[in-house]
Inverse folding.
């Protein structure tokens, strides 16, 4: 862990001694920290939802170039380059996303994989671990689920108000996932977005949804669950968390 990175925050399962432990690792967005998301776990527990679920909220390191906390250096992006096909199968290595700090994204992915390693070591089955996040946290989570050493092996991915980064290494990992038929495994994916998100517009979300679906292959309809929330900006909302709760109850049941 870099010296500029605070350790993760943890909210333990409210039911002690459960025979079916489960963990969600949830990543905050750009310029934020773990403290801002602790109340989500507390709200779930107060409502007696998912009492067997432990929550881990990692902190992104301080990014000197961005002058803020970030899982990778942010850049402006054009998700569907002008004059080029937007079909997922036509995605090429020369796409504009290649300069997006792909190595930084993959470093963050590996950091989260290390947190998964610790949970598995502590007795949580890998298929009962979910990784999720908001905005940049969503981007890192999707790459982890589709193009890391834990691709297709964890129980689920939760992506809120984010997108799927491009880049040759990420692309190669996704193609390997598709080739190996990892979409037939246990992992399920939940993606959610607000229709009035001006920071990550709907066209970015729909492009990401199409490319995630392409990676999943013929199992897309069984694996991928997507929600759009009318009028919601680059924030979260109650209905979104209710849908996320229902998803988690199915993926990591008590």
């Amino acid at each position: 862990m870099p010296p500029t990175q605070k350790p993760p925050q943890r909210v333990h399962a409210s039911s002690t001694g459960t025979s079916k432990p489960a963990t969600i690792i949830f990543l905050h967005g750009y310029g934020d920290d773990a403290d801002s998301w602790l109340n989500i776990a507390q709200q779930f527990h107060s409502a007696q939802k998912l009492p067997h679920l432990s929550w881990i909220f990692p902190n992104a390191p301080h990014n000197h170039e961005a002058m803020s906390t970030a899982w990778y250096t942010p850049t402006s992006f054009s998700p569907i380059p002008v004059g080029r096909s937007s079909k997922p199968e036509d995605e090429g290595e020369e796409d504009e996303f290649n300069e997006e700090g792909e190595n930084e994204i993959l470093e963050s992915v590996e950091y989260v994989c290390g947190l998964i390693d610790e949970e598995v070591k502590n007795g949580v089955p890998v298929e009962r671990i979910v990784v999720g996040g908001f905005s940049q946290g969503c981007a890192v989570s999707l790459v982890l689920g589709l193009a890391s050493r834990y691709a297709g092996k964890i129980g689920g991915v939760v992506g809120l108000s984010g997108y799927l980064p491009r880049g040759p290494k990420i692309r190669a990992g996704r193609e390997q996932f598709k080739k190996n038929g990892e979409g037939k495994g246990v992992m399920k994916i939940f993606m959610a977005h607000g229709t009035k998100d001006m920071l990550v517009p709907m066209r970015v979300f729909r492009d990401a949804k199409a490319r995630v679906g392409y990676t999943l292959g013929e199992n897309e309809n069984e694996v991928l669950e997507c929600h759009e929330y009318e009028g919601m900006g680059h924030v979260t909302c109650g209905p979104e968390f209710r849908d996320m709760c229902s998803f988690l109850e199915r993926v990591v049941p008590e």
Observations:
- The radius of gyration is 17 Å.
